[in-house]
Amino acid sequence: MAEQSKFSKWMQDKVFNPLEDKKMPVMQHLFEFQKRLTKAVVVVALFFIGTFFYADTLVQWLRIPLQNMFVPGNLEWVPTDLPKIPFIFLSPAEALWQNLKVAALFALVLATPYILWEIWAFVVPGLHVQERRFVAPFVAISAVAFYLGLGFCFFFVLPFALNFLISYGVKAGFIPQISIASYVGFALWFLVVFGLIFEVPLALTLMAKLGWVDAPFLKRYRKWAFLGAFLFAALLTPTPDPFNQCLMALPMYFFYEVGIISAGFFKKKPEAGEEEEKAEESPPSKGSVLQPQTSTGGHDDEYVGVP
What we know:
The longest helix has 43 residues, at 129-171. A hairpin with a 4-residue loop joins strand 1 and strand 2. The chain is mostly helical. Helix 6 packs antiparallel against helix 7 (180-197). It has helices at residues 2-16, 26-53, 55-62, 94-110, 112-123, 129-171, 180-197, 200-209, 215-220, 222-236, 242-265, 272-281, and strands at residues 68-71, 76-79, 87-88, 178-179. A two-stranded antiparallel ribbon has the order 1-2. The chain has a two-stranded parallel sheet with strand order 3-4.
């Protein structure tokens, strides 16, 4: 316990106190935002320089879910029964542009922890001490959740979706030839969306911890969340088919339910003053007997009820 208290004191003195808000004016906040945004852009640009040199390799990795299925038990990829599908490009600059897109996304993914750190450093001066203690872990966990969403999509969702859609076209008698732009756009969009879907429980938990929502409130809007998940999936899916829409909407709603459980567990605890105010404002129970107050004015019919 002594070591834990020393560590807490060290965190407070070395991490939280230097980030205390100095009551900066609005323009100074804007300059601070510009400085941190510039740092984040520079870091992403440096990662982009490195990922662009390996863009061809990254595109080949991105192609793995097209004709392979991942087996969790053996931790290996197994080829599917699909025929070999060539990639084609329909404009002179299409291949180069897709390499740029892949390199930019991978650079953004690799720089995500640093971007979250800059966001944390900019926001934390405006938070109370008790809020910083739980916002900081959420910032770190959000990066992990985003990477988990990318991995889940790459190893399970993309192979399943691509195998279903392409095998359906092959059985219908069509010859599969995929444009590099279409495939890269499809795969990258799925990866980003599933990375964000994995953030839904954390976002709901954070809002519950801040007191903005609670579990009963989220339960009342279950049906609207279910409808909203399908509406968002219809807008986010790169293809209009209902299969891909369900593939995005169902995990989105599942994580909404996970967020309800997490919001009930990590709900904001009322402070002592709030509990006393609620106790004073709460009406008397039905079973309680209201005793008439004795009148001091000399009239027996002057009865004052208990408020």
